[in-house]
Amino acid sequence: MPTELPATAGLRGQSIVIDGLTVRYGSFTAVDRLSLSVGEGELFGFLGPNGAGKSTTIRVLIGASRPTSGRVEIAGHSLPRDFAKVKPLFGYVPDSENHMEEFSGRENLVLFAKLYDVPLAEVDKALGRLELSEAADLPVRAYSKGMRKKLLIAREILHQPRILYLDEPTANLDRHSTEVVRKLLRELTARGTTVFLTTHDMEEVEQICDRVAILCKGKLIACDTPVNFMTRHAERKVLAQYEQSSQVLREELDLDDDRQRERLANIIRHEACVRLHSQEFQFEDVFLKLTGQIYT
Amino acid sequence: MMPRLDKVRTLVGREALRLLKNPSALMVLGLLVAFSLLLALSRNEKSPALSCWIVHPDSLLTSEAGGVSSDFIEKLTEAAKQTKTIRVLPLSRIAVFREQRMYPPLTCAIELLKLPADDGSTTQLSVTYRHPGGKSDVLEPFLRWFWPIAVDHFGQVQVVEQAPAASRPTSATALVMERLQSGSLKDLMSEELAAAILLLVVQFVTCCQLIVSFTSQDRERGTLTALALSPITMSELLQAKILFHLLLSALGCGAVIAVLKPSALTHASLWATLLLTSLGLCSVGMVIASLTKTQSGASLLALCYMLVGAVVFYLATKFSAFAQLKSFAFENYGFGMLFLSLQRPIPLARATDLAPMLALVVGWLTTATLLFRTRGWR
Question: Domain A14-231 belongs to what topology?
Answer without folding.
Answer: Rossmann fold (3.40.50)
